[in-house]
Amino acid sequence: MNQLEFARIHEMQFHGDIRFHLRLHEMTKEPLWPEPVPPHWHEEYEFLVITRGTGTACLNTRTMHIEPGDILFINAGIVHSFRGDEKNPLAFYALDFGRELISSYGNDDIQQKYISRQANGELIFRDHFKKDDAMWPHIEEPLEEIRALCSQEMAKNELLIKSNLLRIWHYLCLDAEATSFTLKKKDDERVRMIKQILQYIQENYARNLTLCGLAAYFHMSEGQFCRFFKSQIGMTAIEYLNYYRIGVACDMLKDGMLPISEIATECGYNNISYFNRTFRKYMHCTPGEYRVKK
């Protein structure tokens, strides 16, 4: 697992081919990393199906329990993360695809009624479907067919894959509910702020970041900043900062031969003892042991 895979805030990686913007990937718990997916977002849509384990999903301002069989729809731009239970780690598969894959190249009825209205927020899709939900089989069956088709030669199955995506979209549109613009606006403001904070941490993790400094930068009191961050991400700002820094350190330990003390400094730790303690807390081994294992 590299830095792009587990520590990217705004994921810029293109999923699939520009001519067929889709990728399906299977995910199991990384043995040396406790979190399968930390907070991030991307411009693509995503369906995620839990195949094993239990845990928690965070989608923008909401937190939900997840278990085998659960299906999540993650809209473009949604900040999302997943945390597995320590004794029952998560496994899942995810299908990422671009809006253009299901769009019409013309402003016909299908584009206006079912694609554009969803993109501009008039159609609000539910994001969590459980096995006892009447909608669940209408989504699970075509997703499983896409999964099987992607395991074969995708170049021969594009039409079947796209038809199954449109089938799912049909049922999501039937199920969609309109939402209050006021509520959506408030939610958008919170999401926009947390994205700015995560981006700032990503760009400045090597500096001496403090709660006081972060709060002042985003024009909040320290208490207000701490409460806001914890409510949106599910961990404290310092926990997330350490999480991100240790992820960068793992990449540096794996990909190069810099001394551990230099890696600690590059990752924002001026005290090597504190770095070692923090590394062990997250990775359950020392930096030296991790370098040997990788």
TrEMBL record:
<dbReference type="InterPro" id="IPR009057">
    <property type="entry name" value="Homeodomain-like_sf"/>
</dbReference>
<protein>
    <submittedName>
        <fullName>AraC family transcriptional regulator</fullName>
    </submittedName>
</protein>
<dbReference type="GO" id="GO:0043565">
    <property type="term" value="F:sequence-specific DNA binding"/>
</dbReference>
<dbReference type="InterPro" id="IPR018060">
    <property type="entry name" value="HTH_AraC"/>
</dbReference>
<dbReference type="Pfam" id="PF12833">
    <property type="entry name" value="HTH_18"/>
</dbReference>
<dbReference type="InterPro" id="IPR020449">
    <property type="entry name" value="Tscrpt_reg_AraC-type_HTH"/>
</dbReference>
<dbReference type="GO" id="GO:0003700">
    <property type="term" value="F:DNA-binding transcription factor activity"/>
</dbReference>
<keyword id="KW-0805">Transcription regulation</keyword>
<dbReference type="InterPro" id="IPR014710">
    <property type="entry name" value="RmlC-like_jellyroll"/>
</dbReference>
<dbReference type="Pfam" id="PF02311">
    <property type="entry name" value="AraC_binding"/>
</dbReference>
<keyword id="KW-0804">Transcription</keyword>
<dbReference type="InterPro" id="IPR003313">
    <property type="entry name" value="AraC-bd"/>
</dbReference>
<keyword id="KW-0238">DNA-binding</keyword>
<feature type="domain" description="HTH araC/xylS-type">
    <location>
        <begin position="195"/>
        <end position="293"/>
    </location>
</feature>
<dbReference type="InterPro" id="IPR037923">
    <property type="entry name" value="HTH-like"/>
</dbReference>
